[in-house]
Each structure stands twice: as structure tokens, then as C-alpha cells.
Amino acid sequence: MAISLTKGQKISLEKESGGGLSKIAMGLGWDAAKPKGIMGFFSGNQEIDLDATCIMFDATKNIIDVVWFRQLQSKDGSIQHSGDNRTGAGDGDDETIFVDLSRVPANVTSLVFTINSFTGQTFDQIENAFCRLINLSNNQEIAKYTLSGGGKVTAQVMSKVYRHNNEWKMAAIGEPANGRTFQDIIPNIVPYL
Most buried residue among 86, 139, 143, 191 by CB atoms closer than 10 A? Predict the structure, then answer.
């Protein structure tokens, strides 16, 4: 059974998955909020391009590699991106980042997952946004973090998967930020490393 994470909560991925966790996926899903017309009636969906990113950091807070819509695979091949979804249309995950934890280089201590509104809409215009972690050995959802409150920001530092005492853990961060790409929000990420 998946844990619904709250901001700042941490979990052990090994314990939550029942041990032997080696391949995970981080799914991102969202829907565009329905804009209201002049009379207050819904006037159709607005397309919103959210982007999922995974940034690989070492112990000294240096970026080792980045997987995002402009680079769909890490240089070492341990992380893959499903591709850019520019509308949020459809049910379930709109973008997915697949991670083979057994292949993540030993010098990588943290994987930080972010989302950015590339088209610049703020999160108060986005409905049903979530980030979830899936154990790919059995396709079970391990944890889910729901964006709540949205607000007038264009980015979110969602979560961090990190090594601690030779075990992978996950921390829900939920830090609001502003920026169209991950480069814009690096100052928001560093305090969580």
C-alpha cells in the first residue's frame, strides 16, 4: 500500500518495498485547470507543459548529470526519461523517469526530482498534480506526493531519493520555486542536499 507523503516526510525505500528494491519510476501527472469564461462557465482546457527532471548530485553538491526533456538518458544509462508531454492530456502519469538504482554510479548520493512549467503558467492553473514513486519489480506504488495549494509559482522541487547508510531513502520536499527549467531553481535545491 502506497504512503501519501507530506512535505518534509522521509521514508526508507527498502522497507516500503519489502526489500530488494533496484528499479523505480518517478511518475508526474497533471491536468490543466479549466479557465472560466466571462459568465463564470468553463471555457475549455488550457494546455500546460510541465517538465519532469532528475538531477544527479554527488556528496559535495556538484551536479553529475541531468535527465530531462533535452537529455532523455543519463550518460551512464542508469536513468531514462519517457519523453516530453506538452499538454498533460490523458489519465495517469504524463511524464515518467525510470531509475535503475543498482546502476547509479557510487559517487552519486542524491537524485532530486523537480517539475517546471516550461510555458510559464503557475501552479494555481494546474489541477490533479502529483509525483509518485513506483517499484518496477511489481509495479506497486511505493509513495505518492500530491501538490497542494498550487500558488503563483512555476516550479516545484518535488522530492529527493538519496543514499544513507548503504540504503536508498526518499524525502518529500515540496519546495515552491519560480523558473521554466531546472537551471532556474538550483538555488532552491541546494539547501535540501
Answer: 143
